[in-house]
C-alpha cells in the first residue's frame, strides 16, 4: 500500500467534522478489516466507508485481513504508514480481552493501537443447525443433548479468544458439559458449516442468524442481552434461561497506529463520528442487527480500561488460553 498525507483530513472538507487540516490528502483511506467479506466487521467498515466517501474526498479502500482473532490485521496496521491514512476496524477484544488471554501478544495494546472511535455494538446469539434434533428448543435441552452425544458436540466460533468463543466457554463451563471448539476465520464460513451440519452450534452476532432463523434453516436458542432483543423478540435471553454470565455485548471500533500524531487521531475521530451519526447509516446498521455508536478517543480509552478490568477474572473463569 502506498499512501501519503492525511486521508481523513480531506474528508473534513465535506462538513463531516470541522475545519480542514492544512495537510495534503492521501490518494486513499485504507480501512483494514479484521473479518472476511460478509462478516460483521466487513459490513461495519463498508457502511462507514460509504458515508466517508464523496466527490471531493479521497477514495476509501477496504482491506480484509481475517484470521488469528484480529492479529493479522493488527500486524498490517503496525507495518503501514503513520500519516493517518490507514485505520483498523476490529472487535474491541483486541484491546480488552486479548491482554488477559495471550501469554505473549504480537502487539502492544497500548503502544501499537490508538483508539479513534467506537463504530457499533450488537448482541450475540447461540444458534444450532441440522446436526441438532428439532426437539432441542432451548439451551438446557442443547446441553442435555451434548452430554448424550459428546462426539457431536462441536461448537464453532470466529476465532480463539473472540467474544463468541468466550461466551461459549463461559456458558458450557457453567453448564459443566464437554464440547469441542472449532475455529473459523470469521462468521460467514462458520455459518456455512452450521447450515451443512458439520458443526452443531455457533455463537455470532444475532444479525447474522436472523434470515436463516426466519426460514427455519437454523434455530436461535438464546441471545446475550440483558433482555430479549427487538431483532429476535421470540428468542429468550441466556439470563432468562438461567445463565448468570450471559450478558455480553460485542462491539467494534476504529484504531490508528500508535505512531499517528494525536492531532490526526482527533481529526479522524471527528470525521468518523459525523459519518456514523448519519440517519441512513444508523438505519443500515439497525437492519443488520447493530446499533450505530461512536465516541471520542478519550471515551474509547476509558471504555477499554473498564472492560479490561471486567474481563480479567472472566477469562480466568472461562479457562481459555491462547498461544
Structure characterization notes:
This protein is α/β, with parallel strands linked by helices. The protein has two domains: 186 residues, Bordetella uptake gene, domain 1 (D-Maltodextrin-Binding Protein, domain 2), CATH 3.40.190.150; 101 residues, Periplasmic binding protein-like II (D-Maltodextrin-Binding Protein, domain 2), CATH 3.40.190.10. Helices cover 37% and strands 20% of the residues. It is built from twelve helices and ten strands. Helix 7 packs parallel to helix 12. It is globular and about 55 Å long.
Radius of gyration: 20 Å
Global geometry: globular
Low-confidence sequence ranges: 1-24
Number of spatially distinct domains: 2
Sheet-strand content, in percent, reads 15-25%
In the CATH scheme, the class of the largest domain would be Alpha Beta
Share in helix: 25-40%
CATH superfamily of the largest domain: Bordetella uptake gene, domain 1
List SSEs in N-to-C order: HEHEHEHHEHEHEHEHEEHHEH
Say how many strands there are: 10
The CATH architecture assignment of the largest domain turns out to be 3-Layer(aba) Sandwich
Largest sheet: 10 strands, mixed
Taking all residues together, what is the mean pLDDT?
A: 87
Report the structural category: alpha/beta
Amino acid at each position: 500500500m502506498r499512501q501519503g498525507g492525511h486521508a481523513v483530513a480531506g474528508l473534513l472538507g465535506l462538513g463531516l467534522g470541522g475545519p480542514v487540516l492544512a495537510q495534503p490528502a492521501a490518494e486513499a483511506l485504507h480501512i483494514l478489516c479484521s473479518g472476511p467479506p460478509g462478516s460483521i466487521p466487513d459490513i461495519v467498515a463498508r457502511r462507514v466507508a460509504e458515508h466517508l466517501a464523496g466527490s471531493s474526498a479521497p477514495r476509501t479502500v477496504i482491506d480484509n485481513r481475517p484470521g488469528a482473532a484480529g492479529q493479522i490485521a493488527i500486524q498490517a496496521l503496525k507495518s503501514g504508514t503513520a500519516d493517518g491514512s490507514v485505520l483498523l476496524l476490529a472487535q474491541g477484544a483486541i484491546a480488552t480481552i486479548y491482554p488477559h488471554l495471550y501469554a505473549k501478544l504480537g502487539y502492544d495494546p497500548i503502544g501499537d493501537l490508538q483508539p479513534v472511535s467506537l463504530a457499533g455494538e450488537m448482541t450475540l446469539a447461540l444458534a444450532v443447525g441440522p446436526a441438532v434434533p428439532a426437539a432441542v428448543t432451548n439451551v438446557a435441552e442443547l446441553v442435555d443433548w451434548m452430554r448424550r452425544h459428546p462426539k457431536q458436540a462441536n461448537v464453532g466460533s470466529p476465532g480463539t479468544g473472540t467474544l463468541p468463543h468466550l461466551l461459549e466457554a463461559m456458558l458450557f463451563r457453567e453448564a459443566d458439559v464437554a464440547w469441542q471448539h472449532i475455529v473459523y476465520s470469521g462468521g460467514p464460513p462458520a455459518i456455512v458449516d452450521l447450515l451443512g451440519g458439520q458443526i452443531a452450534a455457533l455463537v455470532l452476532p444475532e444479525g447474522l442468524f436472523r434470515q436463516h432463523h426466519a426460514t427455519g434453516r437454523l434455530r436461535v436458542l438464546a441471545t446475550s442481552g440483558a433482555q430479549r432483543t427487538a431483532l429476535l423478540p421470540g428468542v429468550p435471553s441466556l439470563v432468562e434461561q438461567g445463565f448468570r454470565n450471559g450478558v455480553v455485548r460485542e462491539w467494534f471500533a476504529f484504531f490508528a497506529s500508535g505512531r499517528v500524531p494525536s492531532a490526526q487521531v482527533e481529526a479522524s475521530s471527528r470525521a468518523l463520528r459525523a459519518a456514523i451519526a448519519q440517519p441512513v447509516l444508523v438505519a443500515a446498521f439497525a437492519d443488520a442487527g447493530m446499533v450505530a455508536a461512536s465516541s471520542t478517543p478519550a471515551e474509547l480509552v476509558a471504555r477499554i480500561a473498564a472492560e479490561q478490568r471486567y474481563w480479567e477474572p472472566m477469562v480466568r473463569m472461562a479457562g481459555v488460553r491462547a498461544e
